[in-house]
Design goal:
DNA polymerase, domain 1, 10 helices, alpha/beta, TIM Barrel, 7 strands
Length: 282
């Protein structure tokens, strides 16, 4: 069954596979179009475009920008953006610089807890400029301190855990503005992650729509059928575009497959046309 996947990560951020290998998995899953949405970096897009040409898979330039909502993070996906935009690139570079500062503090906390690792080891594991907690988790796995990325987050890296450090992030409206300025479509990622009631989420989306939000990720690997139905209803009520994706990472989320999520994900191919129309592309 033809399907699309508009939320994927590669080794250019915190995924464990390079774009070309992600696309091979996409072809196997019957994915006809996909978006590489690495965290705060667009460097993997050229490789994805080239692999897409070879494999006959349409590539949508994408990004996932982190923002701050209260005491937690809120992620904004961007689609069909000009990924070489001269304003966007330095903005993303500032986010990545903030990651380095935060990660150094996390490693320091881990050292104080008796775990031996250096940030140089973490950066070497990442292999790109977008370094995050999943890379720290992988180093902890390699050193035998934990058996899985989940254990690393549950014991050390997650919110309220002993090595957690919050990030200095833009407000959601600012992240949305960055994407709009690069002629992209800003979409709220994985709404189940937003710490709001159903009514609170609806009001938040309404406020963010006023700031330029254009869509919501209604189809997602961990959404239950009723949640997907609720988000589709919200999209209709608020006149928001609908997107969906697996949020594939590879090793750090081993139960998530490209195009299939946990096995029951289907992001309909028909969702692509309204996105293209909104972006003004054919």
């Amino acid at each position: 069954m033809p399907r699309i996947d508009l939320h994927l990560h590669t080794t250019y951020s915190d995924g464990s596979l390079p774009p070309a290998e992600v696309l091979l998995l996409a072809r196997k899953a019957g994915v006809t179009a996909l978006a590489i949405t690495d965290h705060d970096i667009v460097d993997g897009i050229p490789e994805a475009i080239e692999a897409g040409r070879r494999l006959g898979i349409e590539i949508i330039p994408g990004i996932e920008v982190s923002s701050r909502h209260g005491e937690t993070e809120l992620h904004i996906l961007g689609y069909f953006l000009d990924w070489q935009d001269p304003l966007l690139l330095p903005r993303l570079a500032r986010l990545r610089a903030g990651r380095h500062e935060r990660n150094s503090r996390i490693v320091e906390k881990l050292n104080n807890l008796g775990l031996t690792l250096t940030y140089e080891e973490v950066k070497a594991r990442a292999g790109s400029d977008s370094v995050g907690r999943p890379h720290i988790a992988r180093v902890l796995m390699e050193k035998g301190y934990v058996q899985s990325a989940k254990e690393a987050f549950d014991r050390f890296l997650g919110e309220d855990k002993p090595a957690y450090v919050p990030r200095d992030l833009p407000e959601p409206a600012e992240a949305i503005a960055w994407i709009r300025a690069a002629r992209g479509l800003p979409v709220l990622a994985h709404p189940t992650w937003v710490r709001e009631s159903a009514e609170g989420l609806s009001k938040l989306c309404e406020r963010l729509k006023g700031a330029g939000l254009m869509g919501i990720e209604a189809h997602y690997s961990t959404h239950k059928p009723q949640q997907t139905a609720d988000y589709l209803d919200m999209a209709r009520r608020l006149d928001l575009l609908v997107t969906g994706g697996s949020d594939f990472h590879g090793l750090t989320k081993p139960d998530i497959e490209v195009g299939l999520g946990r096995g029951g994900l289907t992001v309909p191919e028909k969702l692509l046309e309204p996105l293209k129309k909104a972006a003004g592309v054919s």
